[in-house]
Write a structure and sequence with these properties.
This protein has 373 residues and is an alpha/beta fold. Helix content is 40%, strand content 17%.
Length: 373
């Protein structure tokens, strides 16, 4: 299957060729035709499946066919996503895929001064990517009107619920026009999310790919039995042997800082990202990592959500997460879009029950590696 066969217009095909996308991913192949027909969509897919392009491409195509008559542009598409990192990444996708159209896009999120965002909004935008808090805030200040919205995307709905945004979303929904296309994405379908999707979608097409319990076969998983005091030495040994770019997961912010200190002392360039770091520091760390300036990044689960690095080769779970689904999300940072990847997990005696839960969820046994290997 090619993008051309999905009836995607020339300017978008050209942009996708620049991105070196050869063929659509599973979710793109199934969601794009439905969305191009103007239907509502319930997409069950996690980050890494190519879901951003699955909603961005049909929105760009539908909007670029509309004539923009008024000098002042109204917001016609709203994409709501839980974190700043995701918002920035989605905005970058819209920038790339719409580069040969005359559409404008803007991103807004909290934790930074609102003035530059307000200035961009005043210039007019067709597509707005937003986190819920800042959106409601700027709406209250009358900088944003949603009355011309034709396309609404609710991204990572289950994460929104986890992060406590559900009330913000419930406040927002009645403010959107009744007639619009809604594209709803979630990695999992807990009852509260299923209920919400039922209430806002009209006869949706349901597209489900790689449910959260499944780990793509391109990821090689490996387990090390190692007690807590020995974990940093093992990490240093692995990083010394392997010169790959590595994302290390720490369950706590404090733990992430501690690992970073130990590695830096050994001369291994690394940066930690977590909720206590400023937005600027997190973004800088990500940019350095993406450009190869920093080889190792240590992240907590929330901070890592939305880290999108093509070709990330290795993920290391320095400690086990609290819930098995998080393991699947973590290792899904590697082995993306058909690439291969490696996921190493450090497991102490007391963490072993979590490994059993993970094996139960994924239906796969984790191979054990010897520390000397
Ligand atoms: P997402 O699930 O939207 O976060 O996308 C995951 C990664 O896959 C991103 O780095 C995208 O740039 C990349 N990607 C999306 N669609 C394709 C495609 N059709 N071919 C190759 N890479 C893609």
């Amino acid at each position: 299957m090619t993008f051309k066969e999905l009836n995607i217009s020339e300017p978008i095909l050209k942009a996708l060729a620049n991105k070196k996308y050869v063929s659509p991913t599973d979710i793109q192949e199934r969601a794009i035709p439905v969305a191009l027909n103007g239907r509502d969509l319930l997409g069950i897919a996690q980050t890494g499946t190519g879901k951003t392009a699955a909603f961005a491409i049909p929105i760009i195509q539908q909007l670029s066919r509309m004539e923009i008559r008024n000098k002042k542009r109204e917001i016609k598409a709203l994409i709501l996503t839980p974190t700043r990192e995701l918002a920035i990444q989605i905005d970058e996708c819209f920038r790339d895929y719409s580069q040969y159209t005359n559409l404008r896009h803007t991103v807004i999120f909290g934790g930074v001064n609102q003035n530059p965002q307000v200035e961009k909004l005043k210039q007019g935008t067709d597509i707005l990517i937003a986190t819920p808090g800042r959106l409601l805030d700027l709406m209250n200040q009358k900088y944003i009107s949603l009355e011309h919205i034709r396309h609404f995307v609710l991204d990572e709905a289950d994460r929104m619920l986890d992060m406590g945004f559900i009330h913000d979303i419930k406040r927002l929904l009645p403010l959107l026009p009744k007639r619009k296309q809604t594209l709803f994405f979630s990695a999992t379908m807990p009852p509260a999310i299923a209920k919400m999707s039922d209430s806002i979608l009209f006869k949706p097409a349901k597209v489900e790919v790689a449910p959260v319990s499944s780990v793509v076969d391109t990821i090689k998983q490996c387990l090390y039995f190692v007690e807590k005091p020995e974990k940093s030495k093992l990490l240093i040994d692995i990083l010394a042997k392997d010169k790959k770019a590595v994302l290390v997961f720490s369950r706590t912010k404090h733990g992430a800082d501690k690992i970073a200190r130990v590695l830096n002392k050994q001369g291994i360039g690394c940066e930690a990202i977590h909720g206590n770091k400023t937005q600027g520091a997190r973004q800088r760390a990500l940019t350095n990592f993406k450009s190869g300036k920093t080889r190792v990044i240590i992240a907590t689960d929330i901070a890592a959500r939305g880290i999108d690095i093509a070709n990330l080769e290795m993920v290391i779970n320095y400690d086990l997460p609290d819930v098995p689904e998080t393991y699947v999300h973590r290792i899904g940072r590697t082995g993306r879009a058909g690439n291969t990847g490696t996921a190493l997990t450090f497991c102490s005696h007391e963490e072993y029950t979590m490994v059993k839960d993970i094996q139960k969820l994924t239906g796969k046994k984790l191979n054990t590696a010897s520390i000397q290997a």
